[in-house]
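Q: I'm a student working through a structural biology exercise. My instructor gave each of us a protein and asked us to get a predicted structure, then write a short paragraph describing it. Mine is Phosphatase PAP2 family protein. I'm not confident about reading structure output yet, so if you can add a plain explanation after the tokens, that would really help. Here is the sequence I was given:
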Amino acid sequence: MKSLTTWLVRYDHSLIHLVNCQWKCRFLDWFMPRVTHLGGATATLSFLALWLMVMPKMIKMWAVEGFIALVSSHLVVHFLKMFLPRIRPYLQIRHLHTFPNPLTDYSFPSGHTTAAFSIAITFVMHAPALIGIFLPYAITVGFSRMYLALHYPTDVIIGTFLGSGFAVGTVLLFELF
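A: Happy to help. First, here is the predicted structure for Phosphatase PAP2 family protein. I'll explain a few features afterward.
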């Protein structure tokens, strides 16, 4: 078990260094702080509310399912952040590039990534043709969290699984009833 933990820490540290330092460029420095907010509460809830208001009746329910997946997955995120506290990468690893207004709470798991995937997978399950829009959106939000040194790769991976799992579970539950 100790060797697995050592490998994961080494993997996390080397990949965060690659994404945050080696891939650093002017465009990503401008783009990532903007795109990362698309996984935040304001953007995700606004998107779902707008969808609910303007879409035809037969597809309005996607927003309800997305909201349930979002809220339920975030209850788990909140629980994990409380009981498995992990210091954010930029606070623990030297020489990482930070950006304005960095977060100071715990990093595990990535709530923004969880939110993006809970919505993306919900919508893709209903309309697979939307995968070309929603999957790049969710992946980019997750990548931005590492680029900004706010999350380790494992934080993002677990957020991906949480958001996707709650989306699949919610959609399947609604199909049963």
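A: Here are two points you could use in your paragraph. The longest helix spans residues 57-83. The chain is about 75% helix and 0% strand. It's a good idea to check both against the output above yourself.
Q: Great, thank you!
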